[in-house]
Every structure is written in structure tokens, then in C-alpha cells.
Amino acid sequence: MARSMEDDDIDLGISLETVATVVDHARALQGQEETDEAQLSEDENSEAALLQENPEELTEQTLRDFIDQLNEDEQAALIALAWTGRGDYGPEEWEEALRLAAERNEGGGDAASYLLGMDMLGDLLAEGVAAFGLSIEDLER
């Protein structure tokens, strides 16, 4: 995944698999909040239905713990990807977004709380990755 800047490619500083894990988890949590019982019975393979089957596996606390276990560079990359997905920065401004995210996270900043406070976090991260011409949807998981 590391790419050379000469080719105008960017090293995101975090693996796509890690981003995909956060995206899947965030979307499942969002689905749990938005889904009623009738919808669960209609689509038993939806993320929300699967969450209902194993609610102890996908909680906000488990996602918070996962993010907290990432190193500071990976946490900053998640924040910068969310900003990119939200449209605050473009791919050409990646280095600046990454630097500002790292500054925001310095001194024990709570990256998990910041990220979990964003509406549609999973979609923002997926859009951030897509801005670089990459897709987490194609990853096997």
C-alpha cells in the first residue's frame, strides 16, 4: 500500500483492512440505532440484524477500544480520512490534513471519542478512501 510521491500516489498511513474494520463496525452501530424490529425481520443478513445476533461483539465500546489500540499515526490517518470524506480536504491536501489530525490528537487527544462523535462515520471513512481512488468495499472480510 505504500506508494511513492513521484507517482502522485499517497501512503495513507493506515491499512485498508483497518479502515474497513472501523467502517463495518461504525455502520453496524449506526444500523442498530436506526433499525426497527420490522426491518430486522425483513433482512436477516443486514448489518443491524447481524448486530442483534451478537450485540456483545459490536458495541460502541468495542469500536472505541479498537481505535484506542491503534498507534497515533493510524488514529491521525482515520481522522484525516474522515475529514477528506466530509469534504474538508481533498486528496491533494492529504499531508496537511494528516499533519493537522496529528496535532489535534497530540498529548493524549481522544481520537475514538472525536471519531465516534461524527455522524455517518463509516460512510465518511469510505468516502475518504474513495477520494484516493481506492475502495474498501472490494476487500475480503
UniProtKB/TrEMBL annotation:
Taxonomic superkingdom: Bacteria
InterPro entries: DUF3775 (IPR022254)
Protein name: DUF3775 domain-containing protein
Organism annotation: Siccirubricoccus soli
Upper lineage: Bacteria, Pseudomonadati, Pseudomonadota, Alphaproteobacteria, Acetobacterales
